[in-house]
Amino acid sequence: MAAVLRRGAAGLLSRLQTCAPTVQTPSSSKSFSQNIPSCLWKLGRLNHVAIAVPDLEKAQSLYKDVLGAQVSETVALPEHGVYTIFVELGNTKLELLHPLGEKSPIASFLQKNKTGGMHHICIEVDDIKAAMTELKKKKIRILSEEPKIGAHGKPVIFLHPKDCHGVLVELEQA
Description:
The chain is of the alpha+beta class. It contains four helices and eleven strands, in the order αβββαββββαβαβββ.
């Protein structure tokens, strides 16, 4: 799965931020982008991968009791229509999502994907407002007019998956 995420990330990141500085990869001397002007905002690290789950207690038990991960308490986020649990992984986190209310976006996701599955990735940005302005200019659809406060207490936005190679992308203010 890590290889799939890395392959998809290269194309996705170049589409999201075509004005990124030149980046060298460890396995190659080729860069992702060259001679591109600098942006007013920068992509940061992968904050988390979110997984929609039909049974939050079973999912929490899998990561905590079976795999031995450090797992947070359940937090309700009514504005987003979800319950969340974070699983600490050292270099990033998993976010377990479960519907909160009938209009939850996770409820509709689980209707299509009965056993759950990957819902979105979250990438940190250093200036979410500048990112929004630039992404709108690049015709990347943002799923809300303004950032909402996310599970970490920071502003977040979601980018339309059809504009991001089939991936729902959450950007979070670092």
